[in-house]
């Protein structure tokens, strides 16, 4: 078996696409370059000894045929032949998958790279625009996702090709801008001597922000997780409401920073598990105001649109788009594509 470098030749169909998280794995099958992805039921990673077993069970339960190619999205970088998951016991071993499942090819990419691949195809009910601005065609897009952590990726358009650029943008520094925020920030405990965005703008970071809000307001609160905070906000609790207001404004500033640095005239898109749970705080105007407040470039920022993604699994959609038309995307394959050596089907 060989490990191939960058190539945009078509993949052998059927193609299995997979979005592997720490808790759940989601699979879909793309039968050919013109068919929609057929999704199987989500399955818990803990219910299977490895990814090969999960794929077999999911395909069997859905009555789907065996794939020839697997394109898999995982959280984190792809750095070798063994790719451990951060929050699950699985270790993704592409060479073993080829043997276990009689595959011709396995490709492994970053999870937010997969999210970025979906952006050109999202429209209608899959997205909800926040505020003004309009998409400029064939222009850079950016996706930002507060979930358990804070994922980020860009989709650059150059030479008539979409180029996904994964990264660790969720770990940039995040500071206060208003008197209220300066007071709150003084109560936020640092991690590793710094205050990265993910330490606040994520499901795991939100309780840290809520503790600081409680201290700044002089109120006693104890929230075990982000769900407790959103429930408290829905009930009108002042700490819960203020926490989500601060969260939304800070997320708007961060989204605006990336839009400005990349000139993302194709739009900035919000995804992740937290986003739909705080949608009301993202659409009430404060997020957009913070996004646009980038003097001296306020007018430029007002022209860049922002969206909430409502598609149930944009990562699978992005991988399916790549499977159908790999020639439209410049995805780096070096060290991330494994082949059995069998000649590809035309």
TrEMBL record:
Which SUPFAM superfamilies has this protein been placed in?
A: Actin-like ATPase domain (SSF53067)
InterPro entries linked to this entry: ATPase_NBD, Bacterial_glucokinase, Glucokinase
Chief subcellular location: cytoplasm
Q: Which UniProt keywords apply?
A: ATP-binding, Cytoplasm, Glycolysis, Kinase, Nucleotide-binding, Transferase
Record GO terms (molecular function): glucokinase activity
Q: Which reaction does it catalyse?
A: D-glucose + ATP = D-glucose 6-phosphate + ADP + H(+)
- Report which superkingdom the organism of origin falls in: Bacteria
A Pfam family annotated for this chain is Glucokinase
Protein residues bound to ATP: 18-23
**What Enzyme Commission number(s) does the record list for this chain?**
2.7.1.2
User: Where would you find this protein in the cell?
Assistant: Cytoplasm
Keyword Metal-binding attributed: no
Q: Which PANTHER family match?
A: GLUCOKINASE
Q: Family membership, please give it.
A: Belongs to the bacterial glucokinase family.
The UniProt entry, under HAMAP family, shows: Glucokinase (MF_00524)
Put simply, this protein is called Glucokinase
Q: What is the originating organism of this protein?
A: Roseibium litorale
């Amino acid at each position: 078996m060989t490990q191939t470098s960058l190539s945009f030749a078509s993949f052998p169909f059927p193609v299995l696409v997979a979005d592997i998280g720490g808790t759940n794995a989601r699979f879909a099958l793309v039968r050919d370059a013109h068919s929609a992805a057929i999704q199987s039921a989500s399955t818990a990673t803990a219910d299977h000894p490895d990814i090969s077993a999960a794929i077999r069970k999911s395909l069997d339960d859905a009555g789907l045929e065996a794939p020839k190619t697997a394109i898999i999205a995982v959280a984190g970088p792809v750095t070798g032949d063994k790719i451990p998951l951060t929050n699950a016991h699985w270790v993704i071993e592409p060479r073993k998958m080829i043997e276990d499942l009689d595959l011709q090819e396995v490709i492994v990419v970053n999870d937010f790279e997969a999210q970025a691949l979906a952006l050109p195809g999202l429209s209608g009910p899959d997205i909800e625009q926040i505020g003004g601005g309009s998409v400029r065609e064939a222009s850079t897009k950016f996706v930002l996702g507060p979930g358990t952590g804070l994922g980020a990726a860009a989709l650059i358009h150059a030479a008539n090709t979409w180029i996904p650029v994964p990264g660790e943008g969720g770990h940039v520094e995040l500071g206060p801008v208003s008197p209220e925020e300066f007071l709150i920030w003084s109560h936020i405990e640092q991690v590793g001597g710094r205050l990265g965005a993910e330490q606040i703008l994520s499901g795991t970071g939100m309780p840290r922000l809520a503790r600081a809000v409680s201290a700044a307001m002089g109120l006693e609160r104890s929230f075990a997780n982000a769900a407790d905070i959103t429930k408290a906000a829905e009930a009108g609790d002042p700490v819960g409401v203020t926490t989500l207001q601060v969260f939304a404004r800070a997320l708007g500033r961060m989204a605006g920073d990336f839009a400005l640095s990349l000139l993302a005239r194709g739009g900035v898109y919000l995804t992740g598990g937290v986003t739909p749970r705080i949608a009301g705080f993202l659409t009430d105007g404060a997020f957009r105001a913070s996004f646009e407040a980038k003097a001296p470039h306020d007018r430029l920022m007002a022209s860049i649109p922002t969206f909430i993604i409502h598609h149930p699994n944009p990562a699978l959609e992005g991988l399916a788009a790549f499977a159908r038309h790999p020639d439209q995307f410049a995805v780096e394959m070096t060290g991330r594509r494994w082949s059995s050596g069998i000649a590809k089907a035309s």
